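Entry for 1-O-phosphono-alpha-D-glucopyranose complex. Fields follow.
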Amino acid sequence: MVRKAVLPVAGLGTRFLPATKAVPKEMMPLVDRPAIQYIVEECVRAGLDDVLLVTGSGKGEIEDHFDRRLDLEAALADKGKQDELTAVRDLAHLAQIHSIRQGEPLGLGHAVLMAAGHVAAEESFAVLLGDDIIDPHEPFLERMLEAHDRTGRPVVALMEVPSDQVHLYGVADVEPGERDGEFLVHRLVEKPPVDEAPSNLIVVGRYVLPGAIFDVLHETPPGRGDEIQLTDALQTMAADEPIIGIRLDAERYDTGDKLGFLKATVQIAAQREDLGKEFLEWLRAWIEEREA
Ligand code: G1P
């Protein structure tokens, strides 16, 4: 049973400056929760209640968010604000949150390697990248965990993108697997130029990995961008025996990108029971007014 999740959150968030100058990008709110909370909630829904944050300097607010805040709790209790009190207090019990510092930004593979002291060599774990928010109504991570349980192989999330975007991602060379939406991945290339991309199936920020990846990462030299790439370590494993790819059939937003962030905000707001109806009515009217 996989119980642990590793969340690399050391990135600088340069695409969102100046907003991310003093606030970690993972703390940017989508409606009323920071982006990282959606990721931790996704872990918990899938049964992963042990979450390791791989952080860097200036990321302390993320840990604070998942900790108790007794002065605020007392103030809310005094004012009789029970719902707010529950929301604030429950966050501290959502999962067991641990953290470790990456120290130097040496790549995603290096960030994952930081988990080697927390995850046993024979234990499997999930990696979730904070920029990718997946529709909370879809049990996609659960599907990946099931595929890992069944095959014992590393599992990556795959998604089709237009060819002009493949250079931004890890790209997979695949053949159909034994189930619908499942692939055998023979090869992975990190951010190839379009003419060297084996397909337009890219790796989205969800992975289920066996502890054996740590030994492979130890031996993986710096690759693209002179960084230790998780994609390269997975390529080493895929060269031995295909790994598993699962097509992401749920909505996914790249919240590290301004447009993706806006889309995620709109969709999450529209789905909210307390806000959705009124928000959509306003949005419709706003668009109609502009089109008139
Ligand atoms: C990372 C991975 C890349 C993957 C992407 C998904 O890249 O290295 O293989 O496709 O996440 O979002 P990054 O976006 O951190 O540069």
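NOTE: The longest helix spans residues 276-291.
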